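Hey, can you fold this?
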Amino acid sequence: CVWEVNTETGTLTITGTNYSWMTYPEFMEKDNWSAYESEIEHIYLDGLSRFSESYAMSNVKSAAGQYGSISWEMTDKTLRVNGTGVASGMVWDAFVDLFAPCEVILGDQITGWAANRVIAQTLHIGADYSSEYFPGGFIIASPDNPYYSTYEGSVYTKGFTKLLYYAGGTFHPDIKIIGTGSCRGLMNETLVLPWGLTTIEDDAFVIAGYRPTVIIPDTVTSMQQNHAGGKDCSVIFTYSKSNTAVANVIGGKTDYFD
């Protein structure tokens, strides 16, 4: 890697492939740009797909970079990613503690968001986003996305028929299916599934360490095996005694109402 400091713009540019920015004195002595620490307000990483051990300079206001087909910029509370393909977080992860981004905005040609340290409160997905990975938080899909629709932060198939990721709150009125793994973030709460729902797929409720209550309407006519309601039940399913489609799957291990 090579580096350059532009003192007029306050920009440190590092060009290369991978770089480890260490805080130990012996490394700082080798990285002579550390002498400009008080003047550096912006960092630009050209070609770096990985950057680690970031040193939180007190005056840095933004970090940005380009690697392959991906360009990105992180400022206080916001990360913007543009380009084409899947956005991997190895490079901007180094700045999470410095900028604490709570909003991630993906450009229209970003097709996926790989697992990384950036857990945003709000994630904007663009027109070409097709990945089935939704990391959590409140998600907003572009109206031009042909795969997904979002409603109050939750993700559905286009047209709102099937729930893919539940962010909490109200379900869309057109929902018919609770998808596999879609309600994986429930805690000790009561979740009332909406009237008109017809199907609950296998392992729709993935729970760890909590005991939520899920109330199932009589409109549900198909329910696949949900291990969260098995022998070591961590979900309390409540349903009508007359709903045999649900009772046959749950096996009477949970509550019912007449």
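Oh, and this one too while you're at it.
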Amino acid sequence: PAPILVDFCKLLLNLGKVDEAKTIVAKLLETNAEDKEVSRLADLLQDAAPGQSLAVANFPAIDSLPLEALIHTATLKFESRDFVGAQMSLFIVLAADPSNARAHYYLGSTYLALQELGDAIDELLKINPGQVFFEDSRTLAAYLLQGRKDYSKSIEIIKELIRQDPGNARFLNFLATAYKQAGDLENAALTMEEIAKYNPTDDKLIFSLGVVYDDLGRREAAIESMKKAIAINPNNANALNYLAYTYAEMGTRLDE
């Protein structure tokens, strides 16, 4: 809302945060150019130097800003695809409460919607373990990093998630996928073996592990994995086909 943003700009100017205030006023001018307070702030900022503290009357105390209302406003703006408007509200929240996890998560989401992936990742990674959205933010950041082929950073983040929740099959699967995408099949196999300890009856997982063994040239291990997958689920067509083709190459009958 314009009145809140105007008050926040006044606060920023008294704190000497000229560049931040200029960013907000520039946005306000796009939709509230006729507003006298907005025009006055624009005039004040015209010749202001970075770091210069400008005394502006009637600015609010930072702890009086309605943070929950601003977060709610941001979510409504996000849902209506007003991503920049959502960001303005979230900037205010984070200026007042820099560790607000919800604001960081929603701000990261706005950057993602605007295809500003680097800023999205940076914002998501500001949420700390134990805070709301920690797992969601780290998972999303790791996924985005994989899309940018930054596998080492993605793997580092997924390992952090696993340290927080050892044995989580979803995170272990995510790690195995990251290793495979990075071309690190040895670690992919090791991770999938760890997953199999927690999911010994998952025939699809056992089949996938067999495929990785095959890619590593470990044919005997691959065959054993396929046999295990079929023992769990005799209708696993992928495992059956793999054995059929492999045994045909080896001159061995499938029923042997």
